[in-house]
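New to this. Help decode both lines:
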Amino acid sequence: MLGTTVILAFRAINRHKLRSFLTTLGIIIGVAAVVTMVTLGNGATAAVREQISSLGANVLQLRPGQGFGRGGGGPRPPDFKPQDLTAIENQLTGVRAVAPLVQSSGSTAIYEGSNWSTTVYGTTAAYFEVQNWKADTGRLFMTEEEEAGKPVCIIGNTVRTNLFQGNDPIGKRMRIKGVSCQVIGTLATRGQGGFGDQDDVVVMPIKFVQRRFTGDRDISQILIAVDDAYDTSAVQASLEELMRERRKVKAGDQDNFNVFDTKQISDTLTGTTTILTQIVAAVAAISLLVGGIGIMNIMLVSVTERTREIGIRLAIGAVAREVLMQFLVEAIVLSCLGGLIGLFLALIASIAIAPLMQVPFIFDVKVNLIAFLFSAAIGVVFGYFPARRAAALNPIDALRHE
């Protein structure tokens, strides 16, 4: 019985191919839009997580000021001192590694006839442990190079590509702001993201950068790697208490420093991306409702056109339930066909757009299945009224219909 009803539904749809396609267009667009938006949103969320994880797992970032910047108005918050670094290393429990960081942005690196504007980081070997950043070629700093502040540097892949243009940079000397340094290593590629190009960097011993670039011993940022066995929130609370004491922040006064937990940043950005994805998907889902209204409209027209056919079926013994089932199956078949075509278009669109957005393509079976089932439900909901109207026709009145 059901098989015969499905066959009749396909025959009715096949008789009006163009009208059937236009009827399902709303479902096609709705399913394609929703699945594409959710797929790309999941990719964007994964990209954000990857970028945050590249900052290092269980890492606390200590900066002056009350945000990522130094804040507006009032005196400039003081930078940190080498003694602060020593205090963190010696007085905090659960700290695996501590790395100071000073930065010189917009520095022009020159090698032979090439030049490239980059960012110079002054730090210690602990920086690479905190950031979980390995050397791709060459080596990292040695202890004696750090302590003596020797003019050696490790470059990111972007600097290597634009400055050395395919040549092996190890052992070569380049100039930064008129200062010569020897390249001893290159860093593994990390790529671009919400935090800019992480490979566009030159890393040098902190004492050398302080002596030749900044002119003082101040530290603009401290990175603290927390041992996996410890809770980062507890270590963060101890760090804040220590810094308030060392920076002489009075009770009731706002801190003149801030501590960021990379996990908290990841959770915040991931949550924001997820909410935006849901909002966009909800807007796109409106077209599914529009498509359902289109199916109802066409099915009502179909009932009117086939009134005499319905009357003949009822007159020769068909029951109202069979007529209702026939029209309901037609509506469901239309919506399911639209859902399948929409899923196919969403797959193509996601594969094509993901590389342009520089996010990974993540195929989510659950999202695709839910979208398809929702399109089928649209057929049931919006097809029931026309089907019920067809089943309720009086056979004698239907046979008189011209």
